[in-house]
């Protein structure tokens, strides 16, 4: 049916060699790299058999260097996600998302709900908007903590100015799209689960920011604590992100455990939050479907239309 088959935990015995004809990928555990020769021998065999090699449990710099030295074609593990930050040089915006925002605000009657939805997909746009509205320029008595509230404070005229200013900052798009996608998924998952948590201290929109800003430190290449200094968000959200305390901290742990397929950890967190385990699984699948649907649309090359349409838009 066209599936590729991977075998995990390869050993030199008849059991494994007998299925090599139908195996495409050999996965090697790099959680223990003390016996580098044994790993090298397996990789050499895989190469001779023209099999792809994936190093998994690459959770440290040492494991990463070892996998690279031995020539593993692919690597997976917690260290890989952290290492992505080295390729982030500044805060960029997902360009297709940004173009949709530009088109929406230039309509004769912009839809505030649509604008809110577009901005909420992108952690960098959300961060920039909240930082602007909560700046000394507006001198608000109470800090703004939701995207929709920020848009109302800003107003359509200043919203357009803000977006036009951002357009001049559009670079080469160095921010890995996957980081923005992860923040979008975490935000959706947190907000969906939060409404079922008894006595939760945060609103659905605040829970959305909890997931959204969980990648902010990596995006800005600074400690998360430093990046959160720019934002006025509730102590519950800050403490949950920085120290893993309280209901928000447990909610964030649940989300991270789900990403790592740590089912024991997921069950423990769900029990602490008094969430049915089947509800957690259901909401994750729903959020995956929702985010994938939105993401697939964003990944389609954006076309403004004919030259005349583009010209009219620029004139506006």
Structure description:
- The chain has 316 residues and is mainly alpha-helical.
- It has 3 domains: 6-87, HAD superfamily/HAD-like (Rossmann fold), CATH 3.40.50; 95-174, no CATH class; 177-298, no CATH class.
- 59% of the residues lie in helices and 5% in strands.
- Helix 3 (61-70) links the parallel strand 3 (52-56) and strand 4 (74-75).
- Helix 5 (95-105) packs antiparallel against helix 6 (112-120), helix 13 (235-242) crosses helix 14 (246-259) and helix 14 packs antiparallel against helix 15.
- The chain is elongated.
- Residues 85-91, 168-173 and 301-316 have low confidence and may be disordered.
| Mean pLDDT across every amino acid position | 80
Low-pLDDT ranges: 85-91, 168-173, 301-316
Radius of gyration: 23 Å
- What assembly state would you assign to the polypeptide chains in this entry? single chain
Instruction: Sketch the major β-sheet.
Output: 4 strands, parallel
From N to C, what is the helix and strand string? EHEHEHEHHHHHHHHHHHHHH
Helix count, DSSP H or I runs of 4 or more residues:
17
Structural class based on helices, strands and sheet pairing: mainly alpha
Strand order of the largest sheet: 1-2-3-4
Number of DSSP strand runs: 4
Helix fraction, binned, reads 55-70%
Termini Cα gap: 52 Å
Q: Give the domain tally.
A: 3
Shape: elongated
| Beta-strand residue percentage | under 5%
